[in-house]
Amino acid sequence: MSWIREGELNLIEKLSANILKAGPMPKHVAFIMDGNRRYARKRQVERQEGHTQGFDKLAETLRWCLNLSIHEVTVYAFSIENFKRSKDEVDGLMELAKQKFIRLLEEQDNLEKHGVCIRVLGDLTLLPLDLQQHIARAVVATRTHNKCFLNVCFAYTSRHEIANAVGEMAWGVEQGLIKSSDVSEALLSRCLYSSNSPNPDLLIRTSGEVRLSDFLLWQKARDQHREGQALQQHEADRACLADLLQHHGNGKPLDAQRRREALLNYTASREERVQDFLGALQHKRDSFLTDLTSQAALA
Amino acid sequence: MVHVYEFMWRVLHVLLHIHRTFITLFRIRLRNWNGQLWSRALAALLVPIALSFPKQKKLVPAPGKRVGRRYRWGADGKSLEKLPDHIGLLIAEEEPRYTDIANLVVWCMAVGISYISVYDNHGVFRRNNSRLMEEILKQQQELLGLEGSKQHSVEFLSNGTDKQDHQVLSCQSVVKVLSPDDGKLRIVQAAQELCRAVEQMEKTAKDINVTVLDSLLRESKTTPDPDLVLKFGPVESTLGFLPWHIRLTEFISLPSHVDVSYEDLFSALQHYASCEQRLGK
Lengths: 299, 281
What we know:
- The complex is a heterodimer of chains A (about 300) and B (about 280).
- Chain A has helices at about 10-20, 35-45, 45-65, 85-105, 110-115, 130-140, 160-175, 185-190, 215-220, 225-250, 255-299; strands at about 30, 70-80, 115-120, 150-155, 200-205.
- Chain A has about 300 residues and is α/β, with parallel strands linked by helices.
- Chain B starts with a helix and ends in an 8-residue tail after the last helix.
- At the A-B interface, α1, α7 and α9 of A face α1, α7, α8 and β6 of B.
- Chain B: It catalyses: n isopentenyl diphosphate + (2E,6E)-farnesyl diphosphate = a di-trans,poly-cis-polyprenyl diphosphate + n diphosphate.
């Protein structure tokens, strides 16, 4: 089954979609695809069939999102916690994922037509190598598309994502790219797997459970207002500068004009440091994927 | 054609508001109606008894009523299949009513919940910490009486308190007041601490994982993550409530904390008791 089900909406669906689009619409919707096994039990089919039908419904949902001009969708496909399931079920899910990513590569024309960019968020190193390679090929192949974005969370939990972001900042400090004083809420957000996406406006969980289950915890927490963040950063810069001058200055206090200039210089150099670090981080992540694709090509 | 769709959207939006208002009014009226019905039924039942037994004692003496309620609340807690160890009260409304919040805290204590957190996304409770504490102590006396207050002692924690573990054993309940600073800001502070350790070569970047971050963000080893958060107000968001700690928290929404009743709280707890957590399995 294809990733985006072809087919137009029927008349009533088209009418409803047009009415909905007349009002405010979310730009980014996140889905927790829950309930496949309960569905399979209810229909008295195999669990694997439940997962397959769950994927089909996802394909339909993506089509609806495209029709409703929702251009960014994030789905929670497989949690790191799900590795606790039986070996059969986990292997079945890995196999299903492999087939879907292979199918995706076969449909590149369709994806190009719709301009779909696929991103996979999570700790890919936890997955079987062949699946990692298929994922890498799919992500690299659709990297340049920019009409709509599908983020698939695979081998993901939000805590791992946050811990990974902190680890990357620590790596930046280790490499001498940034200082520990450069760490801020904004920088942490830019080190997350989902750094290229805006925060989701709406989270939908199927099957009636009312918990987040370790999904997008940072992104769903309401952001401090931009002015608040800018003010905090400004204060942090001042504090760092004061510290620097105390330790490395010549002892003479600066006048107001010199202090302002020094602060501007400090802020500019911090921003340059951060940009270089983010560039290096992006390069590290891209290289990981490119290495996987070249391994796949050689195999 | 676009204007037609816009018009249809506005009509549906108005209908949705009417629907919601109607549901709220109906809920309030039903509760009042039920109350009147019950008191009328009781009066109808009691009048003949009063007439036939003139020496009948007063039916519900005030101190006894408190004891009866306290035992009932405790029994209610024991009757549930599971009770949250840590409950969060998220007030997503503009004007907080301290008495109602204090009532909620006291009912939670009476039902047997050990850890209670109170949160609003503007930091109002944090700034008015002492007022909230006073109100809770007052309502504790009011609702549980002197005996009950002795049995259900409460410990107030403020941010950054280094809670000694042995103190927890002597207290029945722990109340904590939270604000958005306890959320993302705490995570950023922990990240800064870890990066400083790396800068000073006390740690390497590879040492940083979920466990290390979790231990920094866990203020006290004994305080569990919130199992249940009751959200009061119309906003459909967690509003920055402890993002790290709510990974498995059940969220139940209630329309408002104003004039909230014990029955509202208990039905939310019953709903929580029926949830099945599979933890990924």
